[in-house]
Amino acid sequence: LPSRRGGFPNMASVGDFNVLSSSIPATKVELSVSCRYGSGSGPLFCVLYTQAIGNKEWREFGRTEVIDNTLNPDFVRKFIMDYFFEERENLRFDFYDVDSKSPNLSKHDFLGQMFCTLGEIVGSQGSRLEKSIVGIPGKKCGTVIVTAEELGCCRDSVLMQFCANKLDKKDFFGKSDPFLVFHRSNEDGSFTICHKTEVVKNTLNPVWQAFKISVRALCNGDYDRTIKVEVYDWDRDGSHDFIGEFTTSYRELSRGQSQFNVYEVINPKKKGKKKKYVNSGTVTLLSFLIETEVSFLDYIKGGYVIGNKLFVFSQSHCNPSQPTSLHYMNPYQLNAYGMALKAVGEIIQDYDSDKMFPALGFGARLPPDGRVSHEFALNGNPQNPYCHGIDGVMEAYYRSLKSVQLYGPTNFAPVINHVARYAASVKDGSQYFVLLIITDGVISDMAQTKESIVNASKLPMSIIIVGVGPAEFDAMEELDGDVVRISSRGKFAERDIVQFVPFRDYIDRSGNHVLSMARLAKDVLAEIPEQFLSYMRVRGIKPSPAPPPYTPPIHVLQTQI
Question: What family is reported (predicted)?
């Protein structure tokens, strides 16, 4: 997952990979959300949901930031989605008034919602859809505006820092509390907010912290596109005072600190009323540094491997010979555990050169003495638990069901620590470990598991948890850390390394398991590249140069005379 701090997650980003069809996504689009309310509201935020293909359940895609006390919020945080012309992507935007610090939506006041499809947004004039917010009978809830913009492929980011001089004084008992708001222009002449600086308190000569923003977000890769910068004086009640504005472009900013990047801050109303008006201060660019973002494929091309995957099965307590068991050995089709393993494993194995995978089980009595184990080899060979390919893992799994007795409790910590020991020996990034846990949701060592995950977040590894069966997966959601970063004994995880998905979201009503498994694999694996990159960034590990393309040897034919 992308780095998520505080009580609300960052926008979700769906990768390029689409296993549902052989087609490449038509494009990536960035959705910007704004609201227009007719009556007052406290701090609020927006939650975007997408609809599952199989059972049509709504799944949370991401949340915006919280905006304080305004009737017309323009959210900075965007939603980035793959757009497929041939797919109908149903969307739901829910709006909440913040009532507590809890990430639990039931703790906040529901303000209404808006339903649409991604195609409806893209197909609207100017890719700008405006619809009424509904959901509260007898009440006009205002409107929501969603704008879609196709993203360019620019991978550069810029690190910029600004300062200001002699800004207008706005506070009666003090000076001003200034901050900057950056907007990029759209093709229809409107503007979309793309960045806000922090507030610098009680000064007319602020120096803001340097900030990093992608060129895509700043100007969508168009170096001459207008960038509008507004200067405000922060007020506690959300009614920030407008000081003035100026315009620039990426091309102008790229000149760096110079006479060309000192901007007069102009307040149009003041300029129209006062003949002697000059400006409301100046803003100066202090530094401009271009950084090229490296991608997951850069590392793969450079020889880094997603290796040593470990597949782990949590054994539920039902007899696998009974049809009610999640481990039921149906002679005609895979059980839930088998389907989840096949869907995810067949994708992951493509990144492994030798196709040898260790596979463990936990929560069972082992022969011959019936001892309880939370870390046993599915193939029965503790000295060499490796299986050849996913088919080998599947074979070992079904064979183990005939030889072990499923038994609780179910402890996650031992298998997480098992992988962590391997990952701790390879910290140079040359190998990255993926642990796949398939479980029925019953966990007996929550405190120890959280501690293991916090410790593992410093290592080159990710954990995928697939929940099977009808159980409530509250514990798994907590381990996922999407809403609140997982912690143990007051220490937070360095990175978000856990991805959880409930298998029931991917069961196709028509019985087309291939379709369900494809969607499962996509959603489960989409975040592995970002988790891999987050480890590399934190450790400062750069990708190795890609080897030169293969050139076949030239054979010179020599003829003797």
Answer: Belongs to the copine family.
Q: Which ranges in 226-382 belong to alpha helices (H)? A: 250-253, 268-273, 296-301, 336-348
First CA to last CA across the chain, in angstroms? 69
Q: Decide: 361 and 374 in contact? Cβ < 8 Å.
A: no
The DSSP H or E segment spanning 247 is strand 241-249
Q: Which residues contact 140 (CB under 8 A, 6 or more apart)?
A: 38, 132
d(CA 182, CA 198): 12
Half-sphere exposure of 219 (CA within 13 A, CB side): 21
CA distance 279 to 289: 28
- Are β-strands 90-97 and 79-83 bridged in parallel, bridged antiparallel, or unpaired? unpaired
97 with 39: CB under 8 angstroms?
no
Number of other residues whose CB lies within 10 A of the CB of residue 16: 12
* Beta strands per DSSP E along 427-515: 431-439, 461-467, 487-488, 491-492, 498-502
Kindly report, residue by residue over 32-56, the tens digit of the pLDDT.
Answer: 999 987 665 678 899 999 987 666 7
- How confident is the model over 490-541, as pLDDT tens digits? 999 999 899 888 887 777 655 445 455 666 767 777 778 888 888 998 888 8
Q: What tokens were used for 179?
A: 């901050």
Q: Please give the C-alpha separations between residue 50 and each of 24, 47, 115, 145, 478, in angstroms, as whole numbers.
A: 20, 10, 10, 18, 21
